[in-house]
């Protein structure tokens, strides 16, 4: 969004993002996929609660593959294939 508003200004930039979002979402929805955008601001209280949930086993990420940072190109290709059943984690 920032790139579009920097390039076209606020009004045209937001319009450009909306049109691109709609086109991407429509095409993906036809294939059974959905894209969504969100903006987040870090919140210490929420992060502490998530940490507590993770420590108590209430939140468990599904990790499909752990790869080294040197394997970044292969990891990118794997994630780009959109066939993952869990998270791909990079370790460096």
From TrEMBL:
InterPro entries reported in the protein's UniProt record: YIM1/Zinc_Alcohol_DH_Fams (IPR050700)
CC annotations in GO: mitochondrion
Protein name per Swiss-Prot or TrEMBL: ADH_zinc_N domain-containing protein
Coiled coil spans: none
